[in-house]
Amino acid sequence: MRSLFIKIFLSFLLISLLASVTTAAISYWAQIGPYARLKNRLEQHQYQSVLHTMSVTGIAAAKILETGGVQELVSYLLEIEQDADDHIYIVKADSSTISGRELPSGAADLVESVHRSADVQYNITEKEIIVAMPLELPGWKETVMMGTIPRITWPPSFSQGIQNRKQFKGFSFHFPLGLPLLIMMLVAATGCYLLARSLTAPVRHLRAAVQQMTKGDFSVRVSLPPGRKDEITDLGRDFNTMIERIASLIEAQKRLLRDISHELRSPLTRMNVSLELARLQPENAESYLLRIEKESDRLNDLIGQLFTLTRLEGRVDNKEKEQVNVSELVEEIAGDANFEAAGLDRRVQPGTLDNAMVQGSREMLGRALENVIRNGLRYTAAGTAVEVEVVQDEGQVTIRIRDHGVGMPEEKLEQIFKPFFRVAESRDRDSGGNGIGLAIAKQAVLMHGGSIEARNHPEGGLVVELRLPVQNL
């Protein structure tokens, strides 16, 4: 069950139903169910049992009184009470007992009722069943025999609940208090506690992880319980992914700042050196000023590219979208590149150029293609060409650019699109690049919903493929 909402809903529903059914079952068995009917039958049996005992005792009492006297009769009655829960009283005409014991509460009225009716009378009190019947003893008039037996009573909590029901007569329902309410509360409290603990435990772990992260510890991870699949587990998994992403971005930012500082420091250092030499050697000041101008142009170009990269990484592009003919754009960039590389014994050679149209920013797409093509011209071998082809297939346009250089180490292919990344020897800064061009190309392609990747050609050289959707929103 993946949905936390369903889990909470069904859990609370189950707890509520369990508590309600438990309460209803107890109330049913205790008040109107089989237990109540059994209790009524048992009380009838108790009444019959007391009446039978009194009938037998009455016969015996007459004989004992005749042969042994009152004291013997009292001893006999006490002996009966020791063997059973019954209490037997013989009440004289003046409502006193022959044993001198006090009658139960309400028994005097029952004696008067027997005198009036000359028949068996009984009364069921809260604690006992009282039965009274006329008794004929030699020499005694208006004698009554009375017997009592403890009643099968409700548990104290139920009797209290029944009394409380009488206090709520104004309501359309009666809710017995006492033990059923206690059981219901215990069941509900236990279930809710376990449920709340189950739900809040991973949240507490997540909070602890967030607190560690705020202290700068990005190595913390939320432990995911095995086998659990719900929104909280998904949240923990997303949190771990977020931590990894943030740690990666912070590390990349630190690396970028180091690279930018280094890239800016180098031309500034050369400018300062040139300025100092111009002061010391006025006769060569013009050459040093040219050097300063060159380094200034490099700084300006670097800052411009950094600005472009930042804007693309933030997906900020204020250029109006338009339909761009990719093949025409490639031919235009190839012509410019061939003009600039005329003296380098290198060229750009367009191949298959399908008439492919994409929607986007012509300027940004142009920068992406120009950076990749110029990168190929920079590293292709002398006397070779950078091959470019445009192929449209299955809703996308593939722009394939291949140079004839030394290629790249396989483990470095995914890193060449990172800012300021260079490979030693064949692709160091002496070749003229600053390591931002391919990063700009990647961000421009991503901004258009496409993708870019590099791979080594089996026959040598590097192949860079740009894929753009034909219809891009």
End-to-end CA span:
38 Å
Main sheet strand line-up:
6-8-9-11-10
- Largest β-sheet summary: 5 strands, mixed
The first-level CATH class of the largest domain is given as Alpha Beta
CATH fold group of the largest domain: Heat Shock Protein 90
Radius of gyration: 52 Å
> In percent, how much strand structure appears in the residues?
15-25%
SSE string, helices as H and strands as E: HHHEHEEEHHHHEHEEHEEHEE
Structure description:
The chain is α+β, with helices and mostly antiparallel strands. The protein folds into 4 domains: 4-32 and 156-198, no CATH class; 36-150, 2-Layer Sandwich (Beta-Lactamase), CATH 3.30.450.160; 231-311, Signal transduction histidine kinase, dimerisation/phosphotransfer (DHp) domain (Helix Hairpins), CATH 1.10.287; 318-469, 2-Layer Sandwich (Heat Shock Protein 90), CATH 3.30.565. The protein is built from 11 helices and 11 strands. It has a 5-stranded mixed β-sheet. Strands 1-4-3-2 form a 4-stranded antiparallel β-sheet, sandwiched between helices. A two-stranded antiparallel sheet has the order 5-7. A hairpin with a 3-residue loop joins strand 2 (121-124) and strand 3. The longest helix is centred in the middle third of the chain and has 50 residues, at 231-280. The chain is rod-shaped.
